[in-house]
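Appendix B, example 12.
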Amino acid sequence: MNPMFEFRNVSRSFGAQHVLNNVSFAGQPGSVIALLGENGAGKTTTIRILLGLLEPDGGSARVFGLDSWEFGDTIRRRVGYVPDRPALYDWMTVDEIGWFCAGLYSRDFIPNYRRIVTQFGLQLSKKIGTMSKGMKAKVNLALATAHEPELLIMDEPTSGLDPIVRRDFMESMIDVAAQGRTVFLSSHQIPEVERVADVIAIIKDGALVLWEPMDEIKQRTRILTVNAVNGATTAPSLPGQVVHTERHERQWRFLLRDLNEDRLDVLRSNEHFTAVEIRQPTLEEIYVGFMQGQPTAE
């Protein structure tokens, strides 16, 4: 299956700051892909390069098989895009801005747009300039999705929305993917991302440190907690890849990948360690571990 979009060894700098460093990935049709990272990690730069709004210093980006920089106008007409800082005409009403954008799309745009804004609880006659940040975010979401794009790209799309609307919108992304379309979003709402995403990408300091299906992440990742006794001052040797380590007095806590639980019997029988516990972490715990830790080989 041809990817819906892809990065090939993309790098981008702003002066002396390296925002993206040799990043490669591919997003498949019919999936919800979430890009996670701290502010300044390169998430918005990644999206702008995909849309052809920013030229990479090295490598290339492609959407629908088209080079993003060369065919940016064509790509942007086919995708739905919600920027992190949307710009709307304050003097227009909700309905007028729908009509303004409708000329770019098919005749289904207006009825779809009106249906979506009504679901969001917005009045068609309300002026954009009198709306709250959350209400403006709803208008942008409606404009981006009313033409039912093959690819929906969103940069912090639910910022400013109340929890119920935010949850309902995020879960609606599952229906979009079920229709064979693709969603690529960056978000700080990690618990909600965990409920809807098929693939998780984590970017740190311009490098892609994880790109993996959610099911595989949960299968491969564990939190191991052990208590040290009898004067133990160093961490135990562990049968797995240590992503992050924390210590609170006598308790050690490890985020591990590919843990071989069969080999933990040696640790349990060690007189220096007790209360060995294993559990599956949340996505937020995995994210924090990758942000704070430095993965090492076994």
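The chain has a mean pLDDT of 86. The chain is about 30% helix and 30% strand.
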